[in-house]
UniProtKB/TrEMBL annotation:
<keyword id="KW-0029">Amino-acid transport</keyword>
<keyword id="KW-0812">Transmembrane</keyword>
<dbReference type="InterPro" id="IPR004840">
    <property type="entry name" value="Amino_acid_permease_CS"/>
</dbReference>
<feature type="transmembrane region" description="Helical">
    <location>
        <begin position="65"/>
        <end position="85"/>
    </location>
</feature>
<comment type="similarity">
    <text>Belongs to the amino acid-polyamine-organocation (APC) superfamily. YAT (TC 2.A.3.10) family.</text>
</comment>
<dbReference type="InterPro" id="IPR050524">
    <property type="entry name" value="APC_YAT"/>
</dbReference>
<feature type="domain" description="Amino acid permease/ SLC12A">
    <location>
        <begin position="62"/>
        <end position="188"/>
    </location>
</feature>
<keyword id="KW-0472">Membrane</keyword>
<protein>
    <submittedName>
        <fullName>AGP2</fullName>
    </submittedName>
</protein>
<keyword id="KW-0813">Transport</keyword>
<dbReference type="InterPro" id="IPR004841">
    <property type="entry name" value="AA-permease/SLC12A_dom"/>
</dbReference>
<dbReference type="Pfam" id="PF00324">
    <property type="entry name" value="AA_permease"/>
</dbReference>
<keyword id="KW-1133">Transmembrane helix</keyword>
<feature type="transmembrane region" description="Helical">
    <location>
        <begin position="91"/>
        <end position="110"/>
    </location>
</feature>
<dbReference type="GO" id="GO:0016020">
    <property type="term" value="C:membrane"/>
</dbReference>
<dbReference type="GO" id="GO:0015171">
    <property type="term" value="F:amino acid transmembrane transporter activity"/>
</dbReference>
Length: 188
């Protein structure tokens, strides 16, 4: 809500009621989101939450480490030896890692801010539908599914490339079968 400087606003620290009218989509509904801000305003975050509510126990340092940890993956290890270190040197490798990690940190922090304002399940997808358009949510869902389904072949190829860097005397089918069994065991 936007207030003029002269208007005074009062905020109840226990619950904040937010109203949202979706005029652009033709709906005339009012949605209310209630946030329990007692754990935010207290010095010590409570780890006990009721069923169906978000436990507010993550600090800013936790979110930043999640973002940085999400940027370290198989692609980093594959490209370090093949292109990054050879072409750019150690400084170029460090700078490119810092820039890509910064972008991921900004994206994760922005998503965390949006979810703390409007807590929803699957924030990337549901926020796209709430903020932009339901069609954009559907397109984002399809893109996310395609991206996630391509991770397994990429991981298999990357692991074979890393192992073949040290040993060429075995068949790639060995690691292929081992990885497929591991992925099936995890998902079943």
């Amino acid at each position: 809500m936007w207030f003029k400087k002269d208007e005074k606003q009062s905020v109840d620290n226990d619950k904040i009621s937010l109203e949202e009218k979706d005029v652009n989509r033709g709906f005339n509904e009012e949605h209310e989101l209630f946030h329990d801000t007692s754990s935010i305003n207290s010095d010590k975050a409570s780890s006990v939450g009721s069923v169906g509510h978000t436990k507010r126990t993550l600090y800013n340092r936790h979110l930043q480490l999640i973002a940085i940890g999400g940027s370290i993956g198989t692609g980093l290890f594959v490209t370090i030896g093949t292109t990054g270190l050879v072409n750019g040197g150690p400084l170029g490798l460090l700078l490119s890692y810092c820039i890509s990690t910064l972008l991921i940190l900004l994206l994760t922090t922005a998503t965390g801010e949006m979810v703390s304002y409007m807590p929803v399940d699957a924030p990337f997808l549901n926020m796209a539908g709430r903020v932009i358009d339901p069609a954009f949510e559907a397109a984002s869902s399809v893109n996310f599914w395609i991206m996630q389904s391509l991770y397994i072949p990429f991981e298999i190829t990357a692991v074979n490339g890393i192992i073949h860097f040290w040993r060429d005397d075995y068949s790639p089918a060995i690691t292929l079968v081992i990885q497929i069994v591991i992925y099936a065991a995890i998902n079943v």
